[in-house]
Every structure is written in C-alpha cells, then in structure tokens.
Amino acid sequence: MTNKKYFSLILILGSLTALGPFSIDMYLPGFPAIAKDLDTTVGKVALSLSSFFIGISAGQLLYGPLLDRFGRKRPLYAGLSIYILASAGCIFCTSIDMLIALRFIQAIGSCAAGVASIAMVRDLFPVKDNAKVFALLMLVLGVSPMIAPTVGGYITVSFGWHMVFLILMAIGIFNLVASWLWLPDSYKPDTTMSLKPKPIIAGFMTVLKVPQFYTYAFTGAMAFAGLFAYIAGSPLLFMDIFEVKEETYGWIFALLSIGLIGSSQINTMLLKRFKSEQLIFAALMAQVLTVIFFLIGSIYGWFGLEATIFLLFIFLCCLGIASPNSSALTLAPFTKNAGTASALMGAVQMGLGALASVCVGIFDVRSAIPMVAIMTATSITAFTILNVGRKRIPKI
C-alpha cells in the first residue's frame, strides 16, 4: 500500500469515525438555547445526549452482523441515509421529546459509520499495526472535539441551534459520497451467516467468551465511560457553574481535546518501546490517581476554573493512551468475525457511556461532584477489570 493511499484511507475512515463525535459535540454549546426554545431545562436537554448514546449502543449490535453478512459498504450506506434523514428532522423539532427521539434515530444511523470503520481497520491492516492505525484515527477523530463545539458555539449565537443540525446533515451527505467514491471493498460478504436472532446471539456470545475480548473490551469501555460523564456534565460545569459564554465553552472543550489527541499520538511513539499491555496499565493507574485527587478537591472546593481544566486535561491524556491500546487488544484475536467483535466492543462502550451520562443528568445539582464521582468510579472499575481479567488471558 502506497503512502498516498494509506493516508487517504486513514482520512476517510477517520471521517466516518468522527461522525458520531461531531454529532455529540457540535450541539453542546446550544443546550441553554435549546432549553429556552423548547420550554424545558438544560437537564432535560441532556437526555437527548443520553438517547444518542443509547442509540449508538443498540445500533452497534444491529450493524455488526449486517457488516459480516452483506460486507462493509451496503450497511454503511443504509446507516448514513438514516442519519441524514434524522438530522433533517432535528432541524424542525418543536418539543424536547421529539428531539430526544430523533437523536436516538440519528445515532442508529451514525453508528454504522463507526462500526464499519473499526472493522475495516482489522480488514485492511496487519494486527501488529492496528494500535498505530487506531491512534492515527484518533488524530483525525480528535479534530471533531476541537472544532465542533467551538464552531457550534458561534453558529448557535449567530444563526441559532437549528443550523447546527443542518450542518450535521451536510456532513452525513459528505461521508456518504466519500464512502461511495473512494472507500474500497475490504471484506467479502459471508453468505453463510444467518441473520436470525438465535445464531446472531450465539455469535456475540462466542466473541464475548474470549478472555482477551471481555478483559480489554470492558476495561476500555469503563475507562471511556468517564469521558461520557465529562461530556454530559461539561455544559453545566462550564456554562452554569463557572458562567463562561457559549463561544468560550467551545474553546475550552477544544483545548481539553488536545490532551486526548496529543497523548494518542505520543502513544504511537511509545509503542516502539513498550507493549500495548504495559501502556494501558500505566495510563489507567495515572487516570485513577488523577480522578481520586480531583474528587477530593471537588468535595472540599479546592479548584477554580483553571485547576479544573488542568485536571480534566490530565484525565484525557491518560484516556488517549488507554483507548487505542484497549481497542487493538480487544480485536486482536479476531479475523473472520471482526465485524461482530467490533460491534460488540462498541455496544459495550456506548452502553456504559450512556449509563454514565444518564447518571450525571440524574443529579440535577449545581456542582461538579456528581460528574467527577462518576469519572472516579468508572476509572477505578476499569483498572480493577484489567488486573483481574488479564490473569485469565492465555499466554502465547
């Protein structure tokens, strides 16, 4: 594979992977405006974020078998089409319940892009290069939290929150066209695979029983759940508690994203000297220590805006190293059923992320403590799963 083709392939896969995060991040600065227009509260608007996470989790399980049965591209086209139509519907929402429902459907569509891109990494690249490719995808992926909330803040102030969903619809159209024109067929459809519920569930159970899968899938998912707690809690934290403007919130979100992106690229260099198993252990240990200190300080009121941003930055740096390595180790044992494995991994990740975001919304209090407490609980749980589960992985 030439360098030019390698670069363009990573770029397209990164664009597909970024569709979900763009859909999450771009409308965050508009929470107060949406609440005002739809005559509801910011906490209720946050449920549209939770419904998106739930939709992605459910959609992962739907698209996994479809990607293995029909190949990567046909389910991808269907999902992107659903995403485009749901985004159009969000533009004309007249109630919060309607927005919550359409966001669920929008997520069902967007997750096809995420599942397909992850499965295609396993299709197109050697196992030994998977962690590097995932790190490169995170670099492209990282553009979304840097650009999306910042642009979303300015768009909301200048044109209203409806325009955000018009732009998301346009991004969906771009991904559909780019996938059709430039994305290669990477997998021959498995016509022997049944789409009946019983064999599909059996396929998921076969994957789930692999020790390496359940150890690193749940480790990565629990670690990543802390990110969803941060995303759900950040509008309240910065725009309500610290009273920053929508545009400023976007810039803070972008600044914090640099930690996630930068550390994922440092991870690529670290892989030349260390194994993925070593890196994920060190990253999670640092993450646990950071959030415990963050929680104690939040309880006693030690931290202002600057200190809060710094600690969140460190948290995201740890996650930027843990995430690509956990993804690579989760999928490493699989070849033929990589689509099912990637879908199940994504479903676990998004399902736990949705639960974390809902938990943040339940505590409708003007405090950072619920968000930080959930980040602490998920990080400690991830570290525990890693240390218990890796003892059950057979030595090669």
UniProtKB/TrEMBL annotation:
<dbReference type="InterPro" id="IPR050189">
    <property type="entry name" value="MFS_Efflux_Transporters"/>
</dbReference>
<feature type="transmembrane region" description="Helical">
    <location>
        <begin position="133"/>
        <end position="155"/>
    </location>
</feature>
<feature type="domain" description="Major facilitator superfamily (MFS) profile">
    <location>
        <begin position="9"/>
        <end position="391"/>
    </location>
</feature>
<dbReference type="GO" id="GO:0042910">
    <property type="term" value="F:xenobiotic transmembrane transporter activity"/>
</dbReference>
<dbReference type="InterPro" id="IPR011701">
    <property type="entry name" value="MFS"/>
</dbReference>
<feature type="transmembrane region" description="Helical">
    <location>
        <begin position="213"/>
        <end position="237"/>
    </location>
</feature>
<feature type="transmembrane region" description="Helical">
    <location>
        <begin position="343"/>
        <end position="363"/>
    </location>
</feature>
<feature type="transmembrane region" description="Helical">
    <location>
        <begin position="76"/>
        <end position="98"/>
    </location>
</feature>
<keyword id="KW-0812">Transmembrane</keyword>
<feature type="transmembrane region" description="Helical">
    <location>
        <begin position="249"/>
        <end position="267"/>
    </location>
</feature>
<protein>
    <submittedName>
        <fullName>DHA1 family bicyclomycin/chloramphenicol resistance-like MFS transporter</fullName>
    </submittedName>
</protein>
<feature type="transmembrane region" description="Helical">
    <location>
        <begin position="45"/>
        <end position="64"/>
    </location>
</feature>
<dbReference type="GO" id="GO:0005886">
    <property type="term" value="C:plasma membrane"/>
</dbReference>
<comment type="similarity">
    <text>Belongs to the major facilitator superfamily. Bcr/CmlA family.</text>
</comment>
<feature type="transmembrane region" description="Helical">
    <location>
        <begin position="279"/>
        <end position="303"/>
    </location>
</feature>
<feature type="transmembrane region" description="Helical">
    <location>
        <begin position="369"/>
        <end position="389"/>
    </location>
</feature>
<keyword id="KW-0813">Transport</keyword>
<feature type="transmembrane region" description="Helical">
    <location>
        <begin position="104"/>
        <end position="121"/>
    </location>
</feature>
<dbReference type="Pfam" id="PF07690">
    <property type="entry name" value="MFS_1"/>
</dbReference>
<feature type="transmembrane region" description="Helical">
    <location>
        <begin position="309"/>
        <end position="331"/>
    </location>
</feature>
<keyword id="KW-1003">Cell membrane</keyword>
<dbReference type="InterPro" id="IPR036259">
    <property type="entry name" value="MFS_trans_sf"/>
</dbReference>
<keyword id="KW-0472">Membrane</keyword>
<keyword id="KW-1133">Transmembrane helix</keyword>
<feature type="transmembrane region" description="Helical">
    <location>
        <begin position="161"/>
        <end position="183"/>
    </location>
</feature>
<dbReference type="GO" id="GO:1990961">
    <property type="term" value="P:xenobiotic detoxification by transmembrane export across the plasma membrane"/>
</dbReference>
<dbReference type="InterPro" id="IPR004812">
    <property type="entry name" value="Efflux_drug-R_Bcr/CmlA"/>
</dbReference>
<dbReference type="InterPro" id="IPR020846">
    <property type="entry name" value="MFS_dom"/>
</dbReference>
